[in-house]
Amino acid sequence: MKKLMYSVLLVSAAVFFVGCVSAPPVKESGKQLPDWVVTPPGDTADTVYFVGSGSAADDASARSAAASDLVSSVTRFLGVKVTSKTTVVAKDTLEKFSSTLDRTIHESSSAQLGDFKVVDTFSYKENGIVNVYLLGAYNKKVLLKEKTRIVKVFAERQEAISGPEAEGAKLASAGSYYKAAVKYIEAAAAAAYSSVDNAQIKYERNMDKARTAVSKISLASVHDNVRVYISMPFTTAFQGRVTSDGKPLADVPVKIVYKAMRKNGRKTVRTAVVSSDSMGLVSFIRPPAAFVGTDTLSMTPDFSSVMEKLQDVPNKLYPAVESLDKMIQSKRIIFTYSVLSHAKEIPTGVLVIDEDSSGAFTGKVETASGIMEALSVKNFILRSIPVDSSLMGMDDGALIRFVRKKYGNSIDRLLFGTAGIVGFQEEKGMYTVKVSGDIKVVDLKTGSVLYSSGTRFKTAIGSNVNSAMSAAFKQFGKETGTLIANTLP
Predict the structure, then answer these.
(1) Chain-wide mean pLDDT for the chain?
(2) Would you say residue 183 lies in a domain?
């Protein structure tokens, strides 16, 4: 459209230039009209001709009217017409075009000749009225290209509602309800933002059709209760089947939602989209789980991309969006699966050194006590390894070798590390202590690290220094023990 506007502006500018800069004197009545006024020239292989005429009490007004008539002749040739189906975007485009054209005709003082030019003018005065005729020539190849493009754009815009709605009807009659629903939603979105006649009625009609199409879709689980060990690949796929009236629906995108464990020990949501095959089957092999316990995985027909188009509809139209979304969510199926671990069956030694702010051993094992309390609830087989001065300052390798040599016959794993005070504050008789630690679990036979917490923190408050310290170490241990129980293979 920009190119069209530019070209027509050239028409106006050229008209103004011809009329204001090089226009011949107004002829008196009785002069013979040129042949092109009486019989406009026909198109040639290279050129399309247009004639514009205008009459007014003065020469300038008559020429302005002739220029407008000439431009109207060009737009009529293009076939651009506003109807009740034309969207607000198309209407605004023509309104801008008209106002810009009118302004250009009256304000331009020079002409730029390109694919269009004014090739002749004729004017005469009769009974006090000036009559002006303008002959314009347009490059035929360029104009026909513009015509094809603009007509296509207007046709697309006019059919923004009726086109998708008709497609939806065809798809629904063929039993392709997912694709039908998508088309109805597209039609509803077009109506929601349109100024066409009865836009709200068309919006509600298509939303109703979309809900009906979605209601025809069934999604059922093929199997459930999958069991797998932590960090091990899922050997069984989660499977759902998409059907309608017992017949499989192919190429239906299905959104899969499941949970994964972050490095900080918290779960987060992951999603994937898988399309149904020719038998309506949706298969998804979940990535290995890094946590222990029972969880769920869901499948829902995925309309997210087309539903996005409805998120900014006016408030009065939004209840229909919520109703449609509720219908879509009613198709969700839930799978339950269990992630198991051998960890609680394996004898594990616990050796955690609590240090004060100077790095010296506190003489207590509050962190180890908290860890063992949390693991005992999960029925872990545990052995507490006493802390003595010979262990202080040992690196990981030396400590593992020491424990393997002394306790290797009774334990297969070692849970070890240090926890120390990294923050202390007293305010109004209350003490705040912050503890930090790094806890690991290794296989004593291979030395491989099975779990590493990374540096973690815990803060506790007490009425005296000792109670605050004890609470901080103990709570740090409990949280660490719970995380280990949920993530140790």
Answers:
(1) 85
(2) no
135 and 238 in a single domain? The answer is: no
Strands (E) in 82-185, as ranges, are: 116-126, 129-139
Residue 322 in domain: no
Q: What is the mean pLDDT of residues 186-199?
A: 84
Phi, psi angle pair for 487, to nearest 5°: -135, -5
Could you tell me if 146 and 7 are in contact, meaning their C-beta atoms sit under 8 angstroms apart? yes
Give the mean model confidence (pLDDT) for residues 66-88: 72
pLDDT score at 228: 93
Residues 322 and 5: their CA atoms lie apart, in Å, by 42
d(CA 66, CA 12): 10
Alpha-carbon distance of 138 to 114, in angstroms, equals: 9
Same domain, 239 and 272: yes
Alpha-carbon torsion 306, 311, 312, 315, what sign?
positive
What does the radius of gyration of the chain's CA atoms come to, in whole angstroms?
40
Domain with residue 282: its CATH number is 2.60.40.10
The pTM is what?
0.63
Tokens representing 147 are 């015509």
From CA 277, how far away is CA 372, in angstroms rounded?
50
How far is 184 from 171, CA to CA, in rounded Å? 10
Q: At what angle do helices 199-215 and 177-192 cross, to 10 degrees?
A: 160
Task: Compute the distance between CA of residue 281 and CA of residue 241 in angstroms, rounded to an integer.
Answer: 5
Among 238, 409, 403, 431, smallest CA distance to 334 is for 238
Q: Rounded to an integer, what distance in angstroms lies between the CA atom of residue 118 and that of residue 69?
A: 13
Q: Do 147 and 153 meet the contact criterion of CB atoms below 8 Å apart?
A: no
Q: Note the pLDDT of residue 98.
A: 55
Start-to-end CA span in the chain (Å):
64
Does 20 score more than 60 pLDDT? Answer: no
Q: Residue 57: CB partners within 8 Å, gap ≥ 6? A: 128, 129, 130
Q: For residue 154, what are the domain limits?
A: 2-158
pLDDT for 2? 44
Is 97 within the bounds of a domain?
yes
Pairing of strands 382-384, 348-355: parallel
Residue 151 lies in a domain: yes
Q: Is the pLDDT of residue 21 over 50?
A: no
What the block records as the tokens of 449 is 């690290």
- Which CATH number characterizes residue 74's domain? 3.10.28.20
Q: What angle do CA 433, 436, 439 make, to 5 degrees?
A: 140
Over range 474-481, report the average pLDDT.
96
User: If we measure between CA atoms, which residue out of 214, 417, 488 comes closest to residue 331?
Assistant: 214
Q: Distance between CA atoms of 430 and 229, rounded to whole angstroms?
A: 46
pLDDT surpasses 70 at 183: yes
